[in-house]
Each structure stands twice: as structure tokens, then as C-alpha cells.
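Dear colleague,

Thank you for sharing your sequence with our group. We've completed the structure prediction you requested, and as agreed, I am returning the results in plain text so they can be pasted directly into your records. Please verify that the sequence below matches your submission; if there's any discrepancy, let me know and we will rerun it promptly.
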Amino acid sequence: MDLRRMLTGDPARSSKIYLAIGVVSLAKALALRNDSTRFKRELLDAGLFIGAGLALRRYGKMKAEKQQQLREQLPSWIAGGDESSTRVPTSAIRAEAKRRLGSEPEPEPTLTDRALNAISGR
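Please find the predicted C-alpha cells below.
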């Protein structure tokens, strides 16, 4: 699995999926303990999935802590904490961000595009 895809979304939820797959692989390894080759392979898979699950859980906790720290540093009108204060519309914030950052970056070329560029000598 692509590492970027693995770390996006909710890592805490993904960690539960990886831990569950690891536990199933561990149970499968125990069921196949008489076949040493498959036992080792399943045990390795179980270790990898459990390790990835634990790493994602830790990453999810660190991500949540960092988001909380950033929210505490934001002005109240951005965080939406004080309804009585003057609020800037979300569309104005988006327009300002687009003005400062420019348009969206171009997508990275695919493997096919890179191969065609290499063949054509560009």
C-alpha cells in the first residue's frame, strides 16, 4: 500500500483495521503451525500488520495532539469558538488563500507519461 494513502484519512481507524488483519494472520499462523514454511510466512505477515497498526495508532495520537495545539493557537474567529465576534466568511478565506497560493499544483506525471517522455528524449 502507498504510504501517502496509508497516512491520510483517519489513522486511528486504519490502525484498527491493520491490527485486526494482524490478529487474523496470527490465528491463521497458529492453525498452520505444523507446516513450517506457511507458519513462518503467516507469522511474518501478522508481525508486519500488527506493527503497521501500532505505528498508525501512534501516528494518529500525535496527529490529534498536533491538531489540538494548532487549534489553540488560532484566533477565535477562525476556529469558530466565539459566535459573538465578527466572523469572516469561509468564502473570503478561501479566496484569499487561492490568491496567495495560486491555483492547484499540477498532478505528478504517471509512469506512462514518464516512459513516453524518456522514449521521446524530452
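Summary note from our side: Helices lie at 3-7, 11-31, 36-73, 76-79, 90-101, 111-120.

Kind regards,
the structure core
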